[in-house]
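Final report, results section. Input specification for complex C-07:
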Amino acid sequence: MEATREIYWNVGHGVVWGMYLLAAIAFAFCAYGLWQRVLIWRQGRALVRHDQFSARLLTALRTIFSQSGVLRVTPVGIFHALFFWGFALLFIGTLLIMLQADFTAPLFDIVFLKGTFYQGFSLVLDLAGLTALLMLSGLTIRRFVVRPQGLPTIANDSINHLLLFTILLTGFLVEGLRIAATELVANPALSYYSPVGRVVALLFAGTPSATLLSLHKGLWWFHLLISLAFIALIPFGKLLHIFTTSANAFFVDRGEKGSLTLINLEDESLEEFGAGKVTDLTWKDLFDADACTTCLRCQDRCPAYNTDKPLSPMKVVQQIGEIAASDPQADLCAVVTSDVLWACTTCRACQEICPANIEHVNKILEMRRKLALMDGEFPGDEVRSSIANLEVNGNPFGLAYAGRGDWAEGLPVVQLGSGVEFDILYFVGCYASFDQRNRQIARAFVKICAAAGIRVGILGKEEKCCGEPARKLGNEYLYQMMAQENIELVKGYGVKQIVTTCPHCFNTLGRDYRDLGLDLPVEHYTTFVAGLLKDGKIRLTPEAFDFSYHDSCYIGRYQDIYKEPRAILAAAGGQITEMAKSGVESFCCGAGGGRIVAEEKIGRRINVERVQMASATGAPLLISNCPFCLTMFEDGIKTGGVEEVLQVRDLAEIVASRLVS
Amino acid sequence: MKILVCIKQVPDLESRFKANSAGVWFDETDLAWRMNEYDEYAVEQAVKLREQLGEGSELVVLSIGPDRVVEAMKKALAMGCDRGVHVQDSAAAVKDPAQIAATVVAYARDQHFDVIFTGMQSQDRGSAQVGVLVAAGLDIACATTLVGFSYSDGTITAKRELEGGLKGIVKLKTPALVTCQLGLNVPRYPTLPNIMKAKKKDIAALPIESLLSTPPLAATVSFHPPAKKGGGIVLEGEVGILVDQLLGILKEKTAVLR
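Structure output:
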């Protein structure tokens, strides 16, 4: 007997019209709901996110079907992925049935759900359903029994879980009743290809056939209705993420990480700057709010949230969505609050982990722009002074700009403009120029270059702050003023390559300055030194030491440089003990986003938290690659009471101390 | 109602000062410039008053000096002044307070300002004379070192900082001049729209010769850093030798071991 089954068995092919009518209603309902959301998203400003169409589509399909985003966090990610794959297979199975029963069979007399293919089809779908059911149970237990701390659970979650359970269970019941009435009687061998359905069928063994038939008919309709209800309800709750989160994999920011829109300061028609209302944000920012499933991953990793500050990136995204839907003209920054906005260190931990491709950081920065440019607001008076210092002396300390090159006295560096040849421009940055501790980094870097025979040029007193802290504090005007002066200077000297020791300068010169017309290779010294080692231009004497390594945000998450620094330190004889939070999961030192010039007045100290993580490794040495981090850790070691057990060094200092001369 | 605020552009105090070749003032190389701190309080208070009075009032910012002072004026305009008057004088730095005050008086005499704001003193010269001399020259009321200011119906209520932490309250009928002290207010940070608007605001240029013809009353004779007093001695080397050296110095140059 051939392996197949009669589609619309017991309910009759006549149901097709009613079924499709109901489906049309469900889809219409769904479309209406989606349109309501579209209207909300369209309140945002324009933004092109459909360029590179095929590449976007490919990325999206890969992200969605591989479930790579959710799978970054286990075990819950595995539950979601398996549920997704199971449910997707069931959906495809349903489509195949539709294709045969309502299209190929009546029109062309083609029946493909038969024989071996049908056996496989039946088995795969049965197991997919079982998997989905088990995973859903796991997710339900996690959400409603285990209740991870901070995970917001709303009424809509209960409805969705119930809906999904009902669909899956009634599916198996309908299948089981059909098998009990047909395959168990006429073709028992086939029933083994529906293992779950067979078990259900066996439960009904002995039930009178008439009862089976009427039960089956009733449940078939119930299963249909509840499935259509599911479709109709998608836009009205968290199920919306099926569309939005998937679509966000397509709308993903394909630009370089950390790119910010450049405000055109020449445009005299501009009167509003930054995001004071949700309508000042882009449609993607509003769309993001609907793509957010409040999965908590961003909040779990936020250094501000984890040190008792009022910022939760998840909450900010949600608030934007709520305002966009309820009161688009509301004062956005007042709802989100200044304390929340100023707490962000722009560490990007939220954005990197987000399985929905939400862009948290730039939303916060757009709101900061509003605070800074429209209201003249600062996180504190100390920041007001630092900004004034930047304006007057080009450094946040307020020290005489004429002393910017003093650190290099007696060192083999070339002052640009002196006519002496040079190979690289070392853009020193404010901290390595002025701060006593950080000058060690600058000196170490020059020593390394000298050993490699590289002639280092500096701008000396002509160099100004790259503008990064000002920009991240929302002051785009000051940023562009300083950036333009630096760019003109660099262009005037015929520089061919720039190397920085500061990751903030690195990202700013290498990425942000490009928008302002500087197109030169810019490198951070970690990769530069790795290159010198590789090319044999410098050699190190390995000397054993134990250390933990801090991935600065702007070298790690922003630039994906993780391997080179570790390789250099290994070559120097170092034995690494990774901190619990390292690599892409590294925990910020607290200084990003312009926070380096701000006092940390709320909650616990982020830098203390981080040095304690370092000291927990047992390694006596913490190595960083950023002047801001070094400053924060030197301070954190003192205030955190780990002076006896932990020291911090910059990677350049380690390399310089082990150079083979 | 017409308001005038007088500002000076001064070198940032963190700059590296060197006497100029004439030896009567500092050399301007390597200096960073900013608005005199006390003048920032004056501008803020003037802008506040201008906002309080609203339509029909005008706030003029005046500065004397070379072209670079326009930068400081632009900031004042971005903070909320309506227009600027730049008295062009490349030698303003060596003019004495009497001359600067005479210049302001010459400009302001026919303008009938109701309230004039100045800083308490400049951060570089620190004479604290210009404000009071302008008031005297215009023969109007004057109160100095303000840490509080309010205006209503032609009367200024000024809170003055006195010696020893005391405060005094004085009332002045306009026209009047006040000089502003730290603590009066927190100067606003200019917003970007206001910076943009300031670019279009008028800054009238007046040559110094058109306003000033009097010689200085007090000429600067010499400008120099204080003479270095004997610095410390840093001993370096082996600890044993250091101890001997230290003992020797203590014996020879001090009385502690006698």
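Chain B has one domain: 2-210. The longest helix of chain B spans residues 37-53. This concludes the modelling results for the funded period.
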